[in-house]
Amino acid sequence: MKFKAAQLARIAVALLITMVAGTRAFADTYSISAVAYTQSGNFAGGDDFGNYTINLTNRMFSNPHFDCGGVANASSCFETHYIDGSAPLFTTTLSPLWSDPNPIAGNESCALNAGSGFHAYSILCNNGHMIFAGDHDLPDGTYVRGIWAGANPDLVLDYLGNGSIDGGFMTANGNAYFIDGLHNTLDVAQNLSASPVPEPGSLILLGTGGFALLGIARRRFVRG
């Protein structure tokens, strides 16, 4: 089957739009890790890639031997961890990582579906992503308590483990940083279902790829 240049051009543009737009998921796959104890500090920031910052200022007052990674005479201390395995960076000022102390809550994407059997005590959501802590009623009158993902969660598939969410925030890409008061830990919920939004350079590459497809379409049409 032969296509005209205009048809091939439309196909190339449609493919490019699909690559850039992607899809939005309401039930994501997460990996939860406890990265510190709450007695050591609290989250001060995090980003879509999984990098995060912990405020360790309180540790300086409770432990006079703590020197903030070798920073002398510091009145505040922040420890930033990187997903690539680089050594933590200690600073006396807050890192530039994205942070939002007031996560989106209460809108439609943050509400559980009625009749689902789940009861949420706390919810973190952003940009269509959601995790919550609560319980689920079982037919025998008992319940399962823990953390789940999604506005319409599956009892088994979206179960993230036993724990609680006692304050935290979620990035636009669905990564969550919160306190698990049940275990007294600072937890990172890495969203494995989504990739960070491409940077401008990546979008340029996608754009040039689309133009390349257009060029191929034109050459095929000319050659017949």
Please tag this protein with its features.
disordered N terminus; disordered C terminus; alpha+beta; 3 helices; 224 residues; 2 domains
Kindly describe this structure.
By secondary structure, the chain is α+β, with helices and mostly antiparallel strands. It folds into 2 domains: 5-22 and 200-223; 30-191, no CATH class. Helices cover 21% and strands 30% of the residues. The strands form 3 sheets. A 4-stranded antiparallel sheet has the order 1-12-11-10, with no helix packed on it. It has a 4-stranded antiparallel sheet with strand order 2-3-4-5, with no helix packed on it. Strand 4 (78-81) and strand 5 (89-91) form a beta hairpin. The longest helix is centred in the last third of the chain and has 24 residues, at 200-223. Mean pLDDT is 75; it is low at 1-25 and 198-224.
Which secondary structure elements does this structure contain, and how are they paired or packed?
Elements: H1 5-21, E1 30-37, E2 42-46, E3 52-55, H2 57-62, E4 78-81, E5 89-91, E6 118-126, E7 129-137, E8 143-149, E9 159-161, E10 168-170, E11 176-180, E12 185-191, H3 200-223
Helix pairs in contact: 1-3
Give the helices and strands as they follow along the chain: HEEEHEEEEEEEEEH
- Report the average pLDDT across residues: 75
Q: What about the largest sheet?
A: 4 strands, antiparallel
Give the end-to-end Cα distance, rounded to a whole number of Å: 12 Å
CA-based shape: elongated
Percentage of residues in helical conformation: 10-25%
The Rg value, from CA coordinates, equals 23 Å
Number of helices: 3
**Strand fraction:** 25-35%
Please give the oligomerization state of what you see: single chain
Q: What class do helices, strands and sheet pairing give?
A: alpha+beta
Low-confidence stretches: 1-25, 198-224
The counted number of beta strands is 12
